[in-house]
Write a structure and sequence with these properties.
Elements: H1 3-6, E1 8-14, E2 19-25, E3 28-35, H2 49-52, E4 62-66, H3 69-75, E5 81-83, H4 100-113, E6 117-122, E7 125-131, E8 137-144, H5 146-156, H6 177-203, E9 208-212, H7 216-226, E10 234-236, H8 240-251
Parallel strand pairs: 1-4, 4-5, 6-9, 9-10
Antiparallel strand pairs: 1-2, 2-3, 6-7, 7-8
Helix pairs in contact: 4-8
Length: about 260
Amino acid sequence: MNRKISQEWLGLMIGNSRLHWGYFQGEILQRTWDTVHIQEYVKPLELPNNFLGFSLDNSLPLMIASVVPSQTQLWQTYQKFNLVRLDDVPLNNLYPSMGIDRALAALGGGEMYQFPCLIIDAGTALTLTGIDGDRTFIGGAILPGLKLQFDSLSTKTAALPNISLPKKLSDRWANNTGNSIISGILYTVLGGIKTFIDDWLIKYPESKIILTGGDATQLYDYWQQENYEQLEQIIVDPNLIFWGMRSLYVSGLYF
């Protein structure tokens, strides 16, 4: 059997809050899951079973992308460690300090849904990344993610409560503190992102808008509740980073 079809391997995205895992058989993503950050060096050729979460060879080739340097170091003792670098991502005009998560998600989004595309990653940070039809980075934006904005009000003020991310939008004109926080954050963020989407679609009217990250589904649900007119051009796909890794795997840069 062709090695590229049969080979098992793992993709690992080290995010700000968690470890995001993907288990592949060749080009096929079989399973994804999340675990907590590790606290000590991984033994050579051995992944802790509690990180695998199911029966699997714990010495598989491992492709790692990371936005947390201290966590990256803890994996470098693993013998089949393969670190993804920004220079390996085949997109044009990426700036040197761009997060590898943004770059891989942009690559994965374009490979899966075609270029041009606008990627909105609703994670710990909320990022927008625009790539044109020539696979060139046009620009984007970064702001605190939804949960981070809610958390910051309770941790940085003396009297404001800690509000969880709600399932439904509250009344825009709120009449108590909790709902005022929900209204202030959600309507401002949703409205702000829509201005980016609307401007992008003026430039690239056939482009897909792809939501990814931990809060992607919730963000989409909010726009459904608002009957956002551009909703039909928005796709939710939590696996864009893994599609980016798969593209690098197919290119032969790793393993």
